[in-house]
Structure formats: C-alpha cells, structure tokens
Design goal:
Keywords: Membrane, Transmembrane, Transmembrane helix. It is a single chain. By secondary structure, this protein is mostly helical. It has helices at about 1-20, 20-45, 50-70. The protein has one domain.
C-alpha cells in the first residue's frame, strides 16, 4: 500500500513538473543546482558556509539562465 501511494505521488509530481512554464522550470533546475552545489561545497570543499551558499546560488542562477535561454527544460 505504501509503495502504491509513493508511485501515485511521483506521478502527480511528474505531471506538475511537466505543466510548469519554461521560466518556472528553469528556476526549478537552478534551485536544484544551487542546493546540490551548496551541499557539495560545504561538505567536500574548504569553503565557509557563506562561501558555499554564494557558490551554490551563483551556479544556480547561471544554470537556470542557461536552461531558460537554451530552452532545455521545455
């Protein structure tokens, strides 16, 4: 029963992502990139937390802009 519920939730999430506008989809991609890079830089890098957040946010903004301008998420 739990597995079926998780599958249903995943399908709902997938449909939600498919219905996003290109700008919102690019923002979501940039946000995921920022979280990933902030985590990796904070854990494995020699940066302070603020430095890791700065690198993550800068990378996320750049990646989101690339996705939007190249039309990758759509």
């Amino acid at each position: 029963m739990v597995r079926a519920s998780l599958v249903e939730r995943y399908i709902e999430l997938e449909q939600w992502v498919q219905n996003l506008s290109p700008a919102r989809n690019a923002f979501l991609h940039g946000l995921m990139w920022a979280v990933m890079w902030t985590t990796l830089t904070a854990v494995f890098g020699s940066q302070s937390i603020l430095g890791a957040v700065g690198i993550g946010v800068a990378g996320g903004v750049f990646y989101g802009w690339l996705c939007y301008s190249w039309g990758i998420p759509s």
